[in-house]
Design a protein that fits this description.
Rossmann fold; seven-stranded mixed beta sheet; five-stranded parallel beta sheet
Length: 383
């Protein structure tokens, strides 16, 4: 993976890049930050700052980033990168290339010229945006205005963006190795039994959406038990595989690529759901994403519909392991935000949601020798 930080001189690329490198390393991932001037120093500064020399240095940067990324090192590039065609080439040459544009008005850069870049180099060194154009990026994955954001605010947005990329990458690798659905989970059996006992007799054509369906095992199980099922997941390769393999078998089953904290509307389903189901995905989202999701659920769940949640508790042994990100956030092999019922349950009231059943225990999600402490919730939307 390559995170390419670009923008005019003085916008904060190196500062943010250094903070990001330290953060990713703290997560336990192999990471390296490549700076344009570092490449120049290695080659005894045989290139200047003309547009032609910058183009040559850009090729060296691209090659270095490509080789590091190819060897599973998260690579952060900090470089002005003023020409759009160079950015397009980088995206074409490097898989898992992500572009972050740090922007600031030239007048603000000159006024806050702490390093003296503009004052001491005008007329001596060619500067992007003054001596030659700085092309406004057309395809950046994230754009942040450092002229109106503090350093900490900027880094917080970059961190959130990169966290999502790293988490997605983890699951891409996982499902590449485990593409085929396994046996349905204990939780899906519990949920189906609850639906059959308490809901199905008074509701026809039950629709269910699974938040983070993974390799589809529970979605397929629900579809086999006469529900109209939508499985949402961010790993596009796995979703394509599932649609190719099962799309023609189950007409009542749809797999779609998406961020379930952003939208629950799909091509085949744009109304309310009878059931919303989350197994081991609620603890994969940040607190701000949780608030978005609860608002979505309030709008997307039918009155008296059911929300099933199964997530790791703060009382699970895994909570004591890994890198501490915040009070409830940890990173072991991947990110988790462990659930604290005292903090979570009051949030439900704001969204017209009420708990019908709650359990916190071991024995609910046994896998091999692992028996985590799990919180299991059945929730309904008030009529």
């Amino acid at each position: 993976m390559v995170i390419w930080l670009l923008g005019m001189s003085g916008v904060g690329k190196t500062t943010i890049g250094t903070m990001l490198e330290e953060y990713i390393a703290a997560r336990g991932a192999a990471c390296y930050r490549v700076d344009g001037d570092e490449i120049r120093d290695f080659f005894d500064r045989d290139l200047g700052y003309s547009l032609e020399d910058r183009a040559q240095n850009m090729k060296r940067l691209m090659l270095g980033a490509y080789l590091l990324s190819k060897n599973e090192i998260v690579t952060i590039v900090c470089a002005v990168t003023p020409v759009e065609t160079w950015r397009v080439t980088a995206r074409e040459k490097i898989s898992d290339y992500f572009e972050i544009y740090l922007k600031r008005e030239i007048d603000k850069l000159r006024k806050n010229d702490i390093k003296g870049i503009y004052a001491s180099h005008i007329g001596k060194t060619q500067i992007a945006g003054i001596d030659f154009p700085f092309d406004e990026p057309l395809h950046s994955d994230l754009t942040l205005d450092t002229g109106i954001m503090t350093e900490q605010e900027t880094f917080a947005e970059v961190k959130l963006f990169v966290d999502k990329l790293i988490e997605k990458r983890y699951w891409q690798v996982y499902y590449r190795r485990n593409p085929l659905p396994a046996e349905p989970s204990q939780f899906s059996s519990f949920a189906l039994n609850y639906i059959d006992t308490n809901y199905r007799s008074t509701h026809d054509n039950i629709s269910l959406v699974e938040l983070g369906c993974g390799n589809g095992r529970d979605s397929i199980y629900f579809a086999c038990n006469h529900m109209y099922v939508t499985g949402i997941d961010q790993v596009s390769e796995e979703i394509s595989f599932l649609n190719d393999k099962y799309g023609g078998i189950y007409p009542n089953l749809e797999f779609t690529v998406g961020d379930f904290t952003a939208s629950l509307t799909t091509e085949q389903h744009d109304g309310e759901y009878d059931v919303i189901y989350s197994r081991f995905t609620w603890h994969s989202i940040t607190e701000s994403a949780e608030e978005r999701l609860l608002s979505l659920i309030e709008c997307s769940l039918k009155p008296d519909g059911l929300l099933f949640i199964e997530a790791r508790s703060i009382n699970d042994n895994l909570f004591e392991q890994g890198t501490i990100i915040s009070k409830n956030e940890r990173i072991t092999d991947h990110y988790r935000r462990f659930m604290d019922l005292e903090l979570f349950l009051p949030k439900l009231n704001k969204h017209k949601l009420r708990v019908l059943e709650q359990t916190e225990s071991t024995g609910l999600a046994v896998c091999g020798n692992e028996d985590p402490v799990i919180i299991r919730l059945v929730i309904t939307k008030e009529i």
